[in-house]
Amino acid sequence: MPTIDKGDKILVTGANGYIAAWVTRLLLERGYAVRGTVRSEDKGEFMKNYFNGVGIGEKFETVIVDDISRDGVFDEAVKGVHAIAHTASPFHFRSKEPKEIIEPAVKGTIGILEATIKHGHDVKRIVITSSTAAIMGNQAEIFTEADWNNVSVKEVDGKGSEASPIHMYCASKALAEKAAWNFYEKHAGAIKWDITTLNPPYVFGPAIHDVRAVESLNTSLALWYDYVVKGSIKSKEALADSNSWVDVRDIALAHAIALENKEAGGERIIINEGGYIWQEWLSIANSITPSPLPSRAFLLGFPEILEGNPVSKFRFQKSKEEQILGIKFYTKAETTKDILDDFARRGW
Questions:
Q1: Which domains does the chain show, CATH number per domain?
Q2: Is the pTM here over 0.90, yes or no?
Q3: N or C: which end of the chain has fewer CB within 10 A?
Q4: Per-residue model confidence as pLDDT tens digits over 316-328
Q5: Which InterPro entries match (predicted)?
Q6: Which residues contact 137 (CB under 8 A, 6 or more apart)?
């Protein structure tokens, strides 16, 4: 399957989002033209102004996609592009009903694939942003790309609106990704493009999209702000909680390499720097001198939690990422410093 060439035009869906804004920036910096879908003219103008401000806006254009679940909404957007990074999908834990988050996730994913069959005659590859939420759920010592989160899907099927919003989100990612692979397998013999899915865990790092107040932060970065900067989570049990993470700039790089690298075609790839315990982020923030936020005193927490080098309760195999993408990941210390510097610039 041919990969993209320098100068090709790439469609990035949801280009005004946290991850997608970095994907767009990196693609522009690597010499590609980018067409980004945005929800409104205002969102598009912000992104244009940002990219012009850093000197890479000449090859950036936008198209309005106000509702990713609407039939045919991507038909015009896919025309004339050579590859697609489909990042647009809701990420929050506020759903009251499963369909609020599952419907746009699944319909948006199928919609971009259907539009590509009909109108994306130049497309060579589609990279889809999934999540480790689509993988973990069942019990496993180390999760791999062969695992699927059937637990959340069953929970939502069985409980409906009584299921937890976290299960609703996880089910949306699992069902959307499965729908993508089923669609691709059904049509593989008649199309000239392939797909790759990328599965990151929690994504942290500085923001470049349109976020003008703390209250507007995306879900993962808002969580980091609450734990580390605001210090609203104070219990030892909560600070000992763990998960896995990746820097937003690394998942953006993963999209770029997955679009470029022939070997990434037809692959499902976990993108994971490693595990974390919340106390680690606090301890790192307290160790930075001088503090990027001198007006704030970070919670000390319980440093003894880190004695004995505890590991995250969620662990993921990294061999496929290492073999195909070969990313050198940002460290927790680097990401912490860059997030705090970003917050300081914003006056938070």
A1: 9-203+247-272 (3.40.50.720), 204-246+273-348 (no CATH)
A2: yes
A3: N
A4: 999 999 999 999 9
A5: Epimerase_deHydtase, NAD(P)-bd_dom_sf, NAD(P)_dehydrat-like
A6: 148, 149, 150, 151, 152, 170, 174
